[in-house]
Amino acid sequence: MTTHLSTTASGDALHGTTFVVRIAVHRAALEPPTITEIRDIEAAAIIEAAFSHVAQISSVPPLALREIIENLIHAEFTDALITVLDAGRTVRVSDRGPGISDPRRAVEPGYTTANEAIRGVVRGAGSGLALATGLVAAEGGAMEIQDNLGGGCVVTISIDGPPAPDDLAPAGQPSDVQRRLLALLLEMAPAHPEAMSRELDLPLGICGRELVLLEHRGLVARFADGGRVLTERGAAIVATLF
Prior knowledge:
There is one protein chain. The protein has 242 residues and is of the alpha+beta class. It folds into two domains: 1-162, Heat Shock Protein 90 (2-Layer Sandwich), CATH 3.30.565; 169-242, Winged helix-like DNA-binding domain superfamily/Winged helix DNA-binding domain (Arc Repressor Mutant, subunit A), CATH 1.10.10.10. The protein is built from ten helices and nine strands. Strands 1-3-2-4-5-7-6 form a seven-stranded mixed sheet. A hairpin with an 8-residue loop joins strand 2 and strand 3. 39% of the residues are buried.
């Protein structure tokens, strides 16, 4: 079965075409996968939609999942496919883009192929795959980068069990953007990234990423439809910030 989804964002961060990401969920070895196709003309919107869809059915650490999905922007979403296996413990992200010429360097901080257009949507600081590798290793899992058939790249994350994000949460106070997001959630939760992006006049890519970081720290919870609310811990943090 194939489901087609279109997000509601408008505008284009790269080149004015419609981006497509397919998501294949394998629920049983001897059954065909369920296919969801997401389309949008804005790169940040399709990243957010794909992440929200996969995060609710996968136990891969959310921040690691976000990083490998964002990596699709380097391939301009060419034949982008996200495959969910092993009851959500394995996520494979593949494309038919330019590929990764040196997988060893790709997981070292500082190496990046991001140009100005890409940095307008994601950080492009050469830290995404390195961070994902560390997060997955902390869960006792592994991340593998391989060449795709006929060109492009395949990134596979596999973990042994559900993540424990509280044990990995970074220390320190929320950033200014995170403070604004927390305060807004106090007023209008549950809220979706698109609405929060408009309300705070923030790029959707930045808004989505910061919400994932707040979720990783246990300050924000995500509903299956992508809506966010403050956790009890998040509400307590907000009370100390203002």
